[in-house]
Amino acid sequence: MQRLKLRSLLYLVMLAALLVACGAPATTAAPTEPPTQAAAAPTQAAPTQAPEPTETPLVKKDVKLTLNFLAGGPQAGFMYAKKLGYYDEVGLNVTIEEGQGSATTAQLVATGGAQIGFADGPSAMTVRSKGGKVKIIAPILQTNGFAVISLKEKNITKVSDLIGKTIAVQPGTAQTALLDAVFAANEIDKSQVNITNIDPAALVGTLLEGKVDAILAGADFQSVQIRDRGYEVNDLFYRDIGVPTIGLSIIVNDDLIEKDPDLIRRFVAASLKGWDAARANPEEAAQAVVEQFVSGNKEQILKQLQVDLLLVCAPGAKSLGMPPEENWTKTYELLIRYQGLPADLPITDYYTTEFIPADAPACP
After folding, report:
1. Chain center to CA of 7
2. Could you say which of 67, 111, 154, 296 would form a disulfide bridge with 150 (CB–CB 3.0 to 4.6 Å)?
């Protein structure tokens, strides 16, 4: 009986243990990574406005222009472009310095001694023919300002009127070298004209004193001086008597064309814009010269400029900086015949039109 009670008690203990085991909560292994957060419901992003396109700012570049001579009317368009901010608009900080003659400026550009130059076309071509790395990129005065100058009382109105007269010339100058071309173009025998060499400083005085009948000089320089003294003058422009050679032009070194053509394009575009503005406001352009080169005389500069503005467009030209092709050909032929320019290079080697903007100011 006692054994039965003990077996019943043991059975009850085992049953209680089994019930406890079945009712205990199950355990799980600890996670090795933190649980991920449930993804939020997708929402539509607010539309954003596309940024407006912006132009890349021009890199400001320093540029030096070396003139052919002292600052005056023949160079006024550059000073006016600077005053009006045209160079600033295209990212150029331009310094303008005076020169010591076209030949010197052309040589400086050819050797890298000057960055951009302003020189007589034939002078630059002569330097290039001798191996100089200089090229004409934009004739500003599309024809030269050379002239046969005489007092009106002499009644010299055509080349044939020089027969039997005395004309004073400056040795070594382009206008003197091309005098034979003037005679040939007008079918005049050179031996019928008395030609005398004279020092440039005495040129005007010799004419006014009546020692000669005419002089070879610049219509925008010596002719203006004579008029300022109260004399009436006849000017026979070379361009009108058969010798329309390319005049004062922007020139650069070949290396600059290769290394920085963009700089050249900017400079030419702004310069032509300045010369166009000078056509419309010559008095203001003359004032710009005086402001930047205080030694200048505004009244005389204005008179020079008024002559030069007659030369910025050759007959038949369509835009500033772009003389007709026939003017280049004529210049080439005249320089070969009368100034010893070699004929081994084509005329197209001496200049390029690639830097003249498509919207260059129109002629006339």
Report:
1. 123
2. 154
Q: Whole-angstrom Cα distance, residue 221 to residue 65? A: 22
pLDDT in tens, 314-353: 999 999 999 999 999 999 999 999 999 999 999 999 999 9
- pTM (predicted TM-score): 0.81
What are the tokens at 175? Answer: 């206008």
State the CATH architecture for 61-143+246-349: 3-Layer(aba) Sandwich (3.40)
**Of 343, 126, 116, residue with least CA distance to 252:** 116
Q: Which single residue is written with the structure tokens 């070969």?
A: 336
pLDDT at 16: 46
Rounded alpha-carbon distances, angstroms, from residue 290 to 63, 82, 83, 100, 284 = 21, 13, 11, 19, 10
Condensed to tens digits (0 to 9), the pLDDT of residues 257-303 reads 999 999 999 999 999 999 999 999 999 999 999 999 987 789 999 99
- Rg value, the chain, Cα: 41
Q: State the amino acid at position 173 in one-letter form.
A: T
Place of tokens 């054994």: 3
Q: Which two tokens stand for residue 354?
A: 């690639």
Residue type, 50: A
Torsion from C-alpha of 331, 250, 103, 93, nearest 10 degrees: 180
CA nearest neighbour of 328 among 172, 143, 147, 187: 143
3.40.190.10, 3.40.50.300, 1.10.10.10, 2.60.40.10: which CATH number matches 146-240? 3.40.190.10
In this structure, are residues 182 and 242 in contact, taking their beta carbons and an 8 Å threshold?
yes
Distant-in-sequence, close-in-space partners of 208: CB < 8 Å, separation ≥ 6: 151, 226, 229, 231
* C-beta of residue 76 within 8 angstroms of C-beta of residue 289: yes
